[in-house]
Amino acid sequence: MTKDIFAFPAPFLNSRKKQTVSVVPLKEKNVKGWERKQTAAIKNRVRQNAFDAKPGQVLFIYDKAGDLEQVLVGINDPLQYYDLSCAVDALTKELSETALKKMAFELDLKGTDNIFKACTGWGWACYRFNAYKQNDNGGIPKLLWPRDVDKNHVQALINSVCLIRNLINIPANDMGPSELEKTAAALAKDYNATLKIVSGKTLQDQYPLVHMVGSSSPRAPRLIDMKWGNPKHPKVTLVGKGVCFDTGGLDLKPSGPMLNMKKDMGGAAHVLALAMMIMSQNLPVRLRVLIPAVENSTSGAAFRPRDIVKSRKGLSVEVGNTDAEGRLVLADALTLACEENIDLLIDFATLTGSKMATLGPDIVALLSNNEKLAGQVEKSSAATEDPVCALPLWQPYRKKLNSDSADIINVGTGPGDTIHAALFLQEFIDNKTDWLHLDIYAWEDVGRPGRSKGGADTGMRSVFHFLKSRYKT
C-alpha cells in the first residue's frame, strides 16, 4: 500500500502528439473580442451553445473532419487555481481513454502566474483514488508543459496535495499507526532525513498521553520524529494529529459522525505533505516533524472519563471526554517540540466540530500566540486561494478548563470548543515559542471540479507560502 500512497497524477507531456488540441481560457469581458476574430463556424458554435465564458463553462470546438480542435473554458478574472479543472472533468467524461491517449492539450494562455495556476489546477483535477477498484481504466488528459513554467514547483504542489488526499482516502484498515510510520520512513529516505520512532514501554514512560489514547487498540501507538536540513538554519517544527481512526473511545460516536473518521489523521497527512513541499523546494530551515500516531478504539484497556494522567510536561490532565483525544496526543508532542529552542512551531489537527459550525469545511481556523504571524498566514491564504481565518486565543476562556481534581481538563464548559481546544494546547507550549495552530476539516463532502470527494488539503498551501516568504533562499 505504501506505493499507492505515492501514486500521483502524471498529467504533463514534454513533446507534442499528432493530435494537439488548444485549450483557450476566456474571460467574460474578452470573449466578444475573441469571437470577432474566429471563423463563421466557430462563431455559430459559440452562439448556439450560449457560451459567454462564465467561470465553469466549457465548450468543445470540432474541425470539419469531426476531430476535437479547441476547448474553450470560461475563467475568473484574474484566473484562479481551479478554473481549468472543469475542462479536465469535461474531457474525461466526453472522451474515451483511447482518444485521450492520442491527444495532447496545449494552453493558449499568457502570464507566468496564470500559467503556473492553470497547470497546477489541471494536475489536481487529474487526481483519481482508484487503488481499490478492479476496473477503473479511465484516462487523464495530458497537458503540454508550457515554456518558462517552474515545473518542479508545479509538480511538487500537485504531489503534496495528492499525498494528503491519498493518506486520508486510504481506509483505516490499511492506514494505521504502522502505515503512517512507513509513509514517514519513505519520505525520510527520499529526502535524506532522519527518522526516530518511539513506542512500547518508552512511549508509555515518556509520552503518557499518547500511550493512554492509543493503548486500547491492538495497533500499537507510536511517536514519529523526523528531522531534515542544516542544523544551523532556523528550526521549524511541524506537529500533526495522527489519530488513524477515532471511534470516540468509551464516549462512543454515533455511526454517522464516525463514518468519516479515517480522516482524523488529516493533521498528520498535512504535515507530511508540507514537509515534502519544504524538502522538495529546499527551504533553508532545520525541519522537524512530530506525529503522535494512534487509534482511538474501545476495549477493556481503553481510557475512561474522569481518568487522570500526568503528561510529559508534568501537568496532570483529567479526561472530561474520551472523544477529545486529539488534543491529548498533541499535548505530549508539543511539549517535546518546545524542549529545544525553535524559531516556529506549527500544528495541524482535525480537532473540533465547532470549527465546522463556525467556518464550514473550506476555511481553516487559525489560533496563535503571535497575532502578527497569524496575520501573515492570512495574507498568504489570500494569495494561494486556500482560506485561513484567525480566531482569538481568548485567555478569559482558560478558566473553563479548570478541573476540580487535576491541573487541567481536556474539555471546556459551554460553547467555544475551538478556542477551548487551542487554550488546552497552549498550556503545553512555553511562552517564548511562536506557535500557529490550524484546526482543519481535511475533507471534501460533495466533490467539485479539481476537488474530488474525500480527503482534501486545507491550509497546507497557505502555510507553505508563508514559510517560503519568511525563510527566503
Your description of this structure?
With 473 residues, the chain is of the alpha/beta class. The protein folds into two domains: 2-147, Leucine Aminopeptidase, subunit E, domain 1 (3-Layer(aba) Sandwich); 156-470, Aminopeptidase (3-Layer(aba) Sandwich). Helices cover 36% and strands 20% of the residues. It contains 17 helices and 20 strands. The chain has helices at 2-5, 31-36, 40-48, 85-94, 97-102, 112-125, 151-169, 177-190, 200-206, 208-214, 255-258, 266-280, 326-337, 353-359, 371-384, 417-426, 460-470; strands at residues 12-13, 19-26, 58-62, 68-74, 103-107, 143-144, 194-199, 222-228, 235-240, 242-246, 286-296, 308-310, 316-318, 344-349, 364-368, 388-390, 408-409, 435-439, 443-444, 454-455. The strands form five sheets. Strands 7, 8, 9, 10, 11, 14, 15, 16 and 18 form a nine-stranded mixed beta sheet that branches. A four-stranded mixed beta sheet has the order 3-4-2-5, sandwiched between helices. Strands 12-13-17 form a three-stranded mixed beta sheet, covered by helices on one side. β3 (58-62) and β4 form a beta hairpin. α4 (85-94) crosses α6 (112-125), α10 runs antiparallel to α13 and α13 packs parallel to α16 (417-426). It is elongated and about 80 Å long. The mean pLDDT is 96.
